[in-house]
Every structure is written in structure tokens, then in C-alpha cells.
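Run folding on both entries below.
>entry_1
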Amino acid sequence: MSKHSIVRWIKIIGVYLLVAAVAALGWLWCALPEEVYLEPEQTLTLPRFGWVEPLRGHGSRNVASTRAAGSYQTTLALGGWLPVKTIRATVMQRPTVTVCGTPFGVKMFSEGALVVGFSEVHTAAGTVNPAKQAGLRLGDRVIRMGNTVTETNEQVHAALEAAAGAAVEVVYVRKGEQRQTTLLPVWDTQNAQWRAGMWVRDSSAGVGTLTFVDAQAGVFAGLGHPISDSDTGERVALRSGEIVACQIVGCTGGTAGSPGELKGKFISDHALGRICINGENGVYGTVSTAIAGQQTEIAFAQEVLPGAAEILTTTSGETPRSYRVYIEKVNDADPHRNMVLRVTDPALLAQTGGIVQGMSGSPILQNGRLVGAVTHVLVNDPTRGYGIFAQTMLEQAHSVPGTDAAA
């Protein structure tokens, strides 16, 4: 091979190495967290990123030496020398919460009447569907018809009766955007009433798992994902809601392609708390009574590691049990799916086949601290599922309106 060819290949290899290095740094920048939390005098380390540490040298701040609570910027660097990303480090006392793992019942009323289905209306002139003709779709929330605010099914019926066949203006919400259309009710000859040809729902109920209670702030956190309508899959827009005591009375085991389910029964009408947030990362609200559990420190997100862990969940009755799991992967980039975990406990596998519906919110503990909560099952493998950081849930819980933490 000629000298010219050798030089050419060296240049090509150099370009490829440079591109690979840039790509690797880009991946690292995305994978690193935007913010970390530390206790006073706690060293800033990122166990999942062994070669990354605060930038050394004059002008950089290693929060490791910071004793006072507060928020600081620090630059992370490869080996402490090659800057990669500037993040915020917040120094605070480590939070402690009451970890639950108990089942709870949810009663929610939606903001507006949710369209969950359509049906043809039989009239003297044939079958028609006024709602479809007006452009309404599954998942739309009807908030007003004419002069009537439609928060309940009964109010929708009353608005149609009041229109008595006259065109009525409909205000609705689709994917967060308020819209309006005109609907012409028709007389249903079979049921002798004015109808629009749509089925609506104003409330939802279900069973989940309570993750924790922060008694000092007076708030609770559960599920780790939003409550969605069973027909449309849309997140229920919360008007009001409450949580009540619940008992697990049965379980359908999960299999590949068919997620299982815990079956619960509400055992009291007395509200344990009020739902204030039905958010992308869980259900949150205020508590009105003491809820049992174990006082546990919360792990900061950067402290969560792949490895052995346990979950607290209830598969029968009202009392949670501890079951072994293994955290296979930890991810800072996805705000809702921070962990992939696998059930390894033979007892839980025998009872449920793994993770089933109703276990969402089950606390995940590692090294004696609360690291997160179970959120979803992998449909094709019920032994595995996703989890969300406890730190994320605590931040959301502290944003509940009207609490000291949200002030």
C-alpha cells in the first residue's frame, strides 16, 4: 500500500472516530440529568456514569463541599476535565415520607361530558347521527350546549330537551383546544326523546395502589400514571374526585399479550382524601385522615441503580407485602418511564404472573429507600414493567394547590 493510501485511510479513520466521539458525547449529554439533589455535605457523584464528575479547576463549584441548602449550577465533565453538561444541583434535607403499598379506590368526576361512543338515532325520516354530522369525535369533552353547562350526563340530556329540535351551539374540548360547532337534535321515535346520537360519561372509578403520603405537607401520591377513560384512552380531565378505602378481592393473572388485573371492592364511602391532580405521572391530592405505612427516606434520582430491589403491593385484602424485583435499566431522559424492572419473586409470579393492572403505584424500594413506583406492565412480558422516580412524584405532590409545600 502506498504512503498516499495510508495517509488517506488514516484521515478516514480519524473522521469516523471524531464522528463517533461527537455522537457519544451527544448521547451522554442527553442521558445526564438536568438537575440533581443532594443532602448537605453529600458528595456529588453519579454512580450510573462512572467517568463523569464535577469539573475540576478554578471557577468550578463542586457541590460536594456545599453545606448550606440552596440551588447551584455545576458543570459535569468526563474524568473531571472535559466539560459535557452544566446542570443544577439543589442541596436540601433528604425527604422522608410514609410509604404505603395499600390499595385505594378512586372516584372521579370529569370536567365536561366525555364522548365515549356513537349510535344511530331512529327518526321518522330514517336513521341519522347528529353528533357525527356536527363533527364530534370520541374523546371530545362537551362543556356547554346552548346556555347549559354540561358537566353531567343529566345536563346533556336537559340541554337536548331544552333545544327541542332547534340547532344548538356546542362548545367542546379536543386535545386541550376549545372548539365549537352546531348540532341539530332529532326526535328518537323508539325512545320518545330528543337525542344527539352520542354516549357521554361524566365520571370514572377504579382501583390503584397508594405510593406514599407526606404527612407534613398533607398530601398523597399514587398510580404513577394518569387515570384514563377505558373507552377512549383519553386522560380524564379532573373536575373533582376523592380516594376511599379499598380491599383486593381477586386477581386475574397476566400472560403475554393479555395483562392481568387486581379486582377491588370499595369498603367505605368515607373519603381518605381529595384528588387535586390527575397528571401524566400520577394521581395526587390532600389527605383528610391518617394513613398507615412505614417512614422511609426518598432516594434522589441519581442514586437509583440497576440491581436488586423490592416492591410493596397488595394482591389480597388490605395489607401489602414485600416482593423481590430486579431493576434492569435506569433512564433519566424519559420523564415518565425512568426504570425497567423485572419481577423475580416466585410468590408474586405464582399469584399474578408478574405486574398486573391495579398494581400501578406500588412503591419500589432499594437499599432501604423509596426509589420509585410501578407504573405500567410490558404487555408482551407481564414479568416486566416500568417505574417512575419517587423524586418526580414527590415534586408533583408538593405542587398540589393549597398546601404549604406548594406555597
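>entry_2
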Amino acid sequence: MIHITVEDRTGSVETIEIPEDINLSLMEVLKASEYNILATCGGMALCATCHVEVLSGMEQLHEASDDELNMLDTLPDADENSRLACQIRLNEQLNGLHIKIKGSLD
């Protein structure tokens, strides 16, 4: 199992368990776990409504693509720990990842 700690916009923290062979993005798992993620573009890195801050485990992630970096550049609260959840594919190396959901709900 992959264990990911998620802090939502209210500060509530929960650890979710995901099967290692699930082959989904973090955004898909967050939506399935009923976190309020807009994901307007459906995971194409075109809207940045699945913005997360990586609190720990950044070194386990692949580098962000140019498309992802371009979308993050449009966000006023993005920083070097920002990623788009739709661009993070879950695998066993991400066990212990700790993220915070960012962005507004509108």
C-alpha cells in the first residue's frame, strides 16, 4: 500500500491508503477520496485547479514538465514546492508523500 498524508484547505490532516498497482494520478485519487478538487481540465495540466504543495517527498517525484511549470507560473501562491496533482502518477516510491491542497474552490 502507498500511504499519502493529505492536508485539506481547512487544515484537516488524513492519511489515505492506495493500492500500489492502482495506476492513477494523485488528482484522480484525491477526487475519489472526496477531496474538493476542481480538476476542470480533467488532468491535462491546462487549468491548475488541482494545485498541491508538497510538504515532504518532493525528491521522490519526477521533474515537472514544461506544461506543468507554465500552468504553475499562472498561480499567485505557487512556489518551488508546488505541483499539479494531475501530473503526479502514483507508484510505490511515493509512499510517505505529504501534500497540502491549495487554491480556491471557485
